[in-house]
Amino acid sequence: MNDLDRLRKTMPEPVVRALAHAGSLLLGLVLAVLLHYVLYRLGLPSKPFIYVAF
Amino acid sequence: MSEPLPLSTGLDRSWFFRPKTFLAGLVAGLVLCSAVARRVSHRGYHDSFTRFTQVLSPEGQYFPTLEEMCGIARERCRPDQVLVIVGGNSIFNGVGQPADKMWTVELQRQLGGGFVVLNFAFRGALCTDGGAVVAEALRGEYPRQVYVANSSPFSPPHPYGADPYRYLFWEALRSGRLEAFAPRDEQVAWLKAHQYTRAELFDQWGRDEMDRALRFRDLWNWVGYTRYFTIPNPVTPTLPQATWARRRFADTEPDFEATPPGDRLRPEFRDAEMRIVRGFSEGFYDRGAGGEWRLKPSIRAQFERTAKSAFPDDLKGRTLIMLSRNNPFYVGLLSADERLRDSAAFRDAVAEWRKAGYEACDYGSGYDPADFGDRTHLSAAGGRKLAGQVAGLILEIAGKRGYLQKEPPPP
User: Fold this and answer.
1) Which pLDDT value is given to residue A6?
2) Cα–Cα distance for residue pair B175/A34, rounded to 1 Å
3) Which residue in A19, B62, B106, B406 has a CA-CA distance of 20 to 30 Å to B162?
4) Which residues of B touch A3 (CB under 8 A)?
C-alpha cells in the first residue's frame, strides 16, 4: 500500500482518478465473470450420471 | 486511549477503488457474459456434431442446453427443409455403430437433401426427453418437422421426461418454449407435489430463473466445448484430456460388427437378459376367459392417460414412435406361450399409441441375430434395416402433412 501511495503522489490527480476508475471497472468485470462461472458450477450435480446398459 | 476510528475505512475510502464504477463493471460483466452466451448458442457452434457422445452428455458432466441444441438445428437445417429430430434412448443414439455407419446417417442418405436428420437421442432417455423438448421448442421456426423416437411396450411416456435429462424440460417450460397443454400441466403439477420438496423446487426455480437472465450454462458450455473444459468427470478423468475442449474428442463409438455375431452375446448375462425380455410383457397381461393373453385394464388406462399428456395434441401427428423389439436370439428362447404374449404386447402397444393420436410402428420382427450387437442395440446392419423402415414412415408423414409442398404449412 505504501508503494502504491508513493506512486500515486508522483502522478497528476486526473491520471490517478482515471486509473482508479479503470481498475475498479476491471475488478468488477473480472468478478462478474467469476460469479458467472460459480453459478454455472453450482448448477451441476456433484455426482455424474452413470449409464449402465444391460 | 486510542484515537477514534474514522467513520468510513477500507476499500471505499482508498484512492484506487471506486465503488460505483466497480458495480458498473460487475453489472456490465454479467450483461456481457449473458450477451455472448445468447449469441453463440443461438447460431450454434457444434461444427462437427454427429450425436451426443459420452463426452458430450451428462455422463461426462456436460449438459447440453436447450438453446445449444436448437443452435445445432439452426446450423444445419434451412427453413425450406424438413427437420427430422431423432430422440429416444441408446438404441436410437446408435450405440455400437461407428459415426459413419450410424443408422441416422443411413436415414439421412435415404431421405435426401430435402430433409435434415439430427440425432438428439441420449443413453437411458425416454421418448419425451431431450430431442422431444427441442422439437417442440422449434415448432414455430421449423413447422415442417418430424420427431421420431423409440420406446418399449407400455413404458409410460412421462411428459416431463426422466432424470438426468429432465433439466431440459424444466428449462423449456420455465422459459415459455413449450405449448400450454392442460393434460401435461396436470401431470407436472402432480410431479411437483409428489416427487420434490418445497426446498428442492425453490432451489431449482432459483437456478433456472437466474440462468434465464444470465445464461451461465450456455456460456460455460461454449467455453468447455470450444476452449477449455473445467469439470471433473469420469469419462475423461485424467490430465491432459480432462481439460481438453470437448470438440477435440471425435465420435469413436466402437463397432459391434468388429465382433463376430456368435461372440457378441455374453452367456453369463443370459439369465438377466431373459428376465428383461420377459419383462417386456409379463407385468402387463393376464389370462382372458378363453385362456388368451389379455392386456390388463389398469395398464391400458395408465398408458392412455400418460400418452395423452406426453405431447400436445397438435404435435402428436408428426411424432413417430418406434417400439424396439429384442434380439430374436433371446425371443427364441421364450416358450411358445411367452412369445404369444410378447407379440401381443407389441401389437397392442402400437395400437394404443395410434389410438392416442401418434404415428407408431414396431421394428425388429424379421431381423436376424446379426442385426443386433447385444439384446437390444442394433449393429450397423440392423441400423440400415431400421433406417429403411423409418425413412418410409417419415415420407408418409411428410406427405400426409403437406411438408413436401412448396409453401410451408402453418406452425
Assistant:
1) 82
2) 25
3) B106
4) none
Q: Cβ A29–B26 below 8 Å, yes or no?
A: yes
| Cell reading at B329 | 436370439
Given a contact cutoff of 8 angstroms between Cβ atoms, the answer to whether B134 and B83 are in contact is no
Contact at CB, B377 and A53, closer than 8 angstroms: yes
- Give the residue from chain B lying closest to A42, CA to CA: B207
C-alpha cell at B96: 455400437
Question: What's phi and psi for B231, nearest 5 deg?
Answer: -100, 120
**How far is the CA of B400 from the CAs of B38, B188, B318, B393, in angstroms?**
36, 32, 10, 11
Nearest alpha-carbon partner for B147 in B129, B162, B123: B129
Nearest Cα residue in chain B from A15: B16
Cα separation, B279 vs B173, in Å, equals 33
Output the CA–CA distances (angstroms, integers) from residue B267 to B274, B329, B333, B375, in the order listed.
11, 12, 13, 12
Cβ contacts of A44 on chain B, cutoff 8 Å: 61, 63, 231
Cell triple for residue B27? Answer: 453489472
Burial-class residue B275 by CB neighbours within 10 Å (0-12, 13-18, 19+): exposed
Comparing alpha-carbon positions, the chain B residue that sits nearest to A44 is B61
* Domain ranges, ordered by start, for chain B: 41-400
Q: Are B80 and B87 spatial neighbours (Cβ–Cβ below 8 Å)? A: no
Helix (H, G, I), strand (E, B) or coil at B293: strand
DSSP string, A3-54: HHHHHHHHS-HHHHHHHHHHHHHHHHHHHHHHHHHHHHHHTS-SS-------
Distance (Å) from the alpha carbon of A14 to chain B's nearest alpha carbon: 12
pLDDT per residue over B110-169, tens digit each? Answer: 999 999 999 999 999 999 999 999 999 999 999 999 999 999 999 999 999 998 999 999
Q: How are beta strands B145-151 and B285-287 bridged, if at all?
A: unpaired
Radius of gyration of chain B (CA): 25
* pLDDT (tens digit per residue) in A1-54: 577 778 878 888 888 889 999 999 999 999 999 999 999 999 888 777 777 665
- Retrieve residue B109's grid coordinates: 442418405
Spatial distance between the Cα atoms of B253 and B95, rounded to a whole number of angstroms: 7
**Grid coordinates in use for B283?**
407385468
User: DSSP letters of B4-17?
Assistant: PPPSS-SGGGSTT-
- Closest residue by Cα to residue B150 from B350, B312, B409, B332: B350
Residue type, position B139, single letter: R
Residue type, B229: F
